[in-house]
Amino acid sequence: MTAAPEPARRPAGTPAPAASGPRAALRAGLIGLGAMGRNHARILSSLDGVRFVGAVDPAGDPHSAPHGVPVLREVDELLDLGVDYAVVACPTALHEEVGLRLAANGVSALIEKPLAHSAQAARRLVDAFEARGLVAGVGHIERFNPALQQLRTRLEAGELGEVFQVVTRRQGPFPHRVADVGVVKDLATHDIDLTSWITGRGYATLSARTVSKSGREHEDMVAVVGSLTDGTMVCHLVNWLSPLKERFTAVTGERGCFVADTLTADLTFHANGAFATEWEALRAFRGVAEGDTVRYAFPKREPLVVEHERFRDAVEGKPSEIVTAREGLRTVEVSAAVLDSARGALTARADSDSGSGAGSGSGGPDPDVQLV
Ligand SMILES: NC(=O)c1ccc[n+]([C@@H]2O[C@H](COP(=O)([O-])OP(=O)(O)OC[C@H]3O[C@@H](n4cnc5c(N)ncnc54)[C@H](O)[C@@H]3O)[C@@H](O)[C@H]2O)c1
Fold first, then answer.
1. pLDDT tens sequence across 93-128
2. What does the pLDDT look like over 46-56, one tens digit per residue?
3. Domain annotation covers residue 178
4. 354 CA distance to ligand 1 centroid (A)?
5. CB 3.0–4.6 Å: which of 122, 200, 203, 248 could bond 169 by disulfide?
6. Are residues 82 and 199 in the same domain?
């Protein structure tokens, strides 16, 4: 039910008003009212400059999430209301279908991560939005985490010197709602996106192993080792099989190590010790010593609010840093390479076990995947 009289509807695809002068509210919709969708509903209902006009979920609204807006069953009903943009938070397997429908109707979209279930689907989405000059973003929310924003700013300022290694760990228990993709596409895409973003480098090569223990079609544990285009080493451990929740990013370089915890939004710097050792035997060893540890203080705004503000500004035509659909595509491509590598390793092991020779040192699939 609408809480207040509706303003005149702007047909879908009509350009948003110019940024100067009093701001006319953008009309926004939401597609999917599940675990993530209800958070989007909360933000959309109070976002300055935006009028939240309706939400779509064929299952209705079990959480009283949409704050007085109509809950619709079909995307077309939302399009009939007239929207400038929509947030897509339905299951990943439906992102392509829903996104293409929005693009065909001239509606910009903030699509939850991962952009799509496959690289081909992600590419079709990028093409559709770019061809119509629409704004398309991806909900890689870690980029808006204050700890990672601080980390990136400090890396860009050269505080670490040369970067040697990025390590991430994203471990936790099983989320029963995710059934359409495995942990690589659902969770490791966060690690792939944030690693590229904080370093400003793409992936050059990687090798991965997966484990499937939950009895579902998809993997639920992955280990990835790779290198970025400048040679920086990366390592990601991501799973749904740990009875603890961890969101850890460590960047080690010439001057020490930054550690970001994106659960608490804390950033800590462990500096290399600067003192000269008097122990002659150690003088020849050029490794590091422990120095000071600093935990930084900085404002901690809710990442989802910042993500929405940036996207709204982009739809209004203002300069704004969003995660573009093209960047989201690249992340899906890297996640597909992770799965290719893991499959190659499994095949090599099966061949080796069966004594066919491949994978037993005489050739066979190479689990190292080149990305550039
Ligand atoms: N950015 C993040 O940190 C983050 C966190 C969680 C989920 N997500 C992403 O959000 C998306 C949804 O995940 P979730 O955890 O909320 O899943 P969920 O299963 O809790 O919710 C999905 C909702 O979509 C609805 N739905 C199904 N078909 C639909 C359709 N055709 N149109 C509209 N709605 C439909 C379902 O009824 C359900 O309410 C996924 O792509 C997931 O990867 C992102």
1. 999 999 999 999 999 999 999 999 999 999 999 999
2. 999 999 999 99
3. yes
4. 41
5. 248
6. no
CA 36 / ligand 1 centre spacing (Å): 6
The 3 state secondary structure assigned to 282-339 is HHCCCCCCEEEEEECCCCCCCHHHHHHHHHHHHHCCCCCCCCEHHHHHHHHHHHHHHH
CA-to-CA distance for 183 and 241, rounded, in angstroms? 10
Number of domains in the chain: 2
C-alpha 178 to ligand 1 mean position (Å)? 8
**Domain identity same for 259 and 222:** yes
Residue located via tokens 């544990």: 221
Burial class (CB in 10 A: 0-12, 13-18, 19+), 206: buried
Q: Is the CB of 32 under 6 A from ligand 1?
A: yes
> Ligand 1 in contact with 177 (CB < 6 A)?
yes
Q: Kindly state whether residues 215 and 267 are assigned to the same domain.
A: yes
pTM of the predicted structure, to 2 decimals: 0.90
